[in-house]
User: Fold these one by one.
Assistant:
Number 1:
Amino acid sequence: MIVAANFKTNLTRLETGEYLGELEGMLPKLEGVEVRVFPASSSLVPHKGQAVVGAQNAYPAKSGAFTGEIGLVHLEEFGIETILVGHSERRHVLHESQVDIAKKFDFFKENGFEIIYCIGEPLSVKEQGLDATLAYLQTQLEGIDLSYAKLVVAYEPVWAIGSGLTPTLEEIETIHDALKRIAGVKLLYGGSVKTDNAKAIMELPSVDGVLVGSGALKVENFFSMINDAITIKKG
Ligand code: PEP
């Protein structure tokens, strides 16, 4: 089970360092549960512990003339080897195209990163039904090497992110089950995961963990979700 926190544009470097310190102090020895924390780029910190720090985004180049971006050298400085690619806010707020996203995927794949690759449909697509939703999600897998061993897919419906709305458990399981057949990789669910729904979501057979945004900003809440993951035994 993977339990991941995406801080988005929240928590300074100081706050991130304090958060990680507190989290490590709370964690029992983890077996079968992996923890990922994705701070803002300017809050990346060198970190050794059970929680693995990853990048929310980076430009697909070692370094160069890409004003405002960070590249591979900036991640290497902190020993970062895991990255989010295709997050809904990168797609819909920052207008990254599928071609841009696939290039980013390829670059970080070539550099051996674990890639948490995010996909998710907007409300207008969800309203067209399951077939339309699955067809849309498949367009977000175009150009992505699904056989990459360090690929994890996060299914995050756009309408559920930061909205307090979530699909029903049945809807999550239906989509994850279909995605398992298409992609055959570990699958996280993301979108308004909180302390009160995380366990039920992680218990679903086709769910391998959660990617949590605002619900993870308080360390005690993130820890509670990790604890939920620890209690779940799947065959
Ligand atoms: C996310 O940022 O990946 C996310 C799922 O956000 P939230 O939990 O706030 O909906």
Number 2:
Amino acid sequence: MEKTIYFEEDAVVILDQTKLPGQVVFEKIETIDQAAEAIKKLKVRGAPLIGVAAAFALAMAVKKYSGPEQVLEANFRDWKNTLASTRPTAVNLFWALERMERVYRENRKKPLAELGNTLKAEAEAMYQEDIEANKALGDFGQELLKPGSTVLTICNAGALATCGHGTALGVIRSGAQRGKIDRVYACETRPLLQGARLTVWELMQDKIPVTLITDNMAGYTMKTKKIDAVIAGADCIAANGDTANKIGTSTLAVLADYYDIPFYIAAPMSTINTELPSGDSIPIEERDPDEVRQIRGSFVTVPQVEVFSPAFDVTSNELIDAIITEKGVFRPPYAF
Ligand code: MRU
């Protein structure tokens, strides 16, 4: 699997996920504005990767900075605000920006080159920690799966959405490594088709059997295909376990409840925001209506039609059988 992000001298290189699976294209990011645009346009996406990408971008900007030392402070604030304005639901973004700011403040008195290198090292540590967290949560999560499992998932919570291994797909991958996965049903995930474009590509690369369904086939698939578990990622988990994830996730949870199928969320601890008491306080991103009006740039409806396009929904904690993290598996009532 290709790396999703890396440093190259004074630039950040990202795998452009909007071009997958047709083309594997890497893009050089050299400014904060380019980084913010790449996050907004979903060239880099998935809550954990968004956080690490923002950290890489901040480190890059400080490393490249050559203006007066007194103005760095104001610049740093602007860069952080620009990055923070990109994807409001992805809590890892804010977690990563706060962590970078803390390291910036602790090392602010150091010579500029040393400060830049320290921030780069911190961003690289986040990258490594994310992979390790995903492997650990994968190990915990696979214990919930029995041999011969058929699992349904939505969006892409895989290696592409993280720094490696993935969260929901991390559990599936760890299960597959132990021979427990018979098949994965991947919801296509309209409007931007992260399931059809990314999850299918990723699982096929790993030779994990995958069947693509459109989102509205999920109920019939649960009824007829002996689904053993639904596993999804998360963009934000509130203190009571309510979980924001890709739009359509809560529909799957309601269906899974009806068909008596376990519904699991897999996410690193950095996706949990205990300052938010419940899902009601999670901000939900709304996206450009043209993403719904069009598929891959072509209109599929009357171009002027009004559109509602929330990027995420919130699944109530009572519909979630377990939240799988690198610290272990949490069960209701949730207390992190
Ligand atoms: O809009 P996206 O593609 O960034 O949405 C991604 C998801 O909903 C993922 O499930 C979530 O961020 C977790 S990724 C490990």
